[in-house]
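It would be a great kindness if you could assist me with a short task in structural biology. Thank you for your consideration; the sequence and its tokens are set out here.
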Amino acid sequence: MNEIVAEFIGTFLLILLGNGVVANVVLNDTKGHNSGWIVISLGWGLGVFVGVAVAGPVSGAHINPAVSIGLAAAGLFPWLKVLPFILAQMMGAMTGAFTVWLFYRHHFNRTNDSAAQLGCFSTAPAIRKTGSNFISETIGTFVLIFVILYIAEPSVALDGGEELKMGLGTLGALPVALLVTAIGLSLGGTTGYAINPARDLGPRIMHSFLPMDHKGSSDWPYAWIPVLGPFAGALIAAAFFLLHSLIST
């Protein structure tokens, strides 16, 4: 398994389990119906755990375009690899979203609430305020990238002189799962905490053409916020990291 395949599979597993837990909670007649936000946050955290456990040893487990951009901006990942990683992440996210729809297709058709259906694919704000929604996504992603850059050890050498691959996997699968769970529980109430452009955009694309009864809009006017907000948060975290490195030297 090469790095690109690892990013595809890791992101696929993240979205399958992350959007899967949302579907289990919000769609009608599931066993987990109405089990609440804690279940969703924990499910997403465990989805990250699984994706990182699989992709971490191979690619570092970015499984998130904001992570790839943030690490590249901080000088810890080659820019040449950013686009291939993002394309693999997008394809993994779209495939994961399709699989969630396939798995829960009868429950989608029993759910009359089009917003609940969309929520199984992508995020939406609790209160639609463009500036505040953008700031929420920026701060949430800043926390994610900040922790990666300041707790991970990018210079640790493995046996044989091989460098440890930077990404979510450098924190370890369990710590990063707890980090994402904490972000969801504390900062997820305003926008649903995409903190990952592929996690939102890929499934939103799938929602736009998959067949579902009572299907509504894919809410494209909002879609730029969970894409650009995470990128902004990642770049701010990288700027802090570079400034601190400059001051330290």
About this structure: Residues 155-159 have pLDDT under 50 and may be disordered. DSSP finds ten helices and no strands in the chain. Residues 3-248 form a domain with the Glycerol uptake facilitator protein fold (CATH 1.20.1080.10).
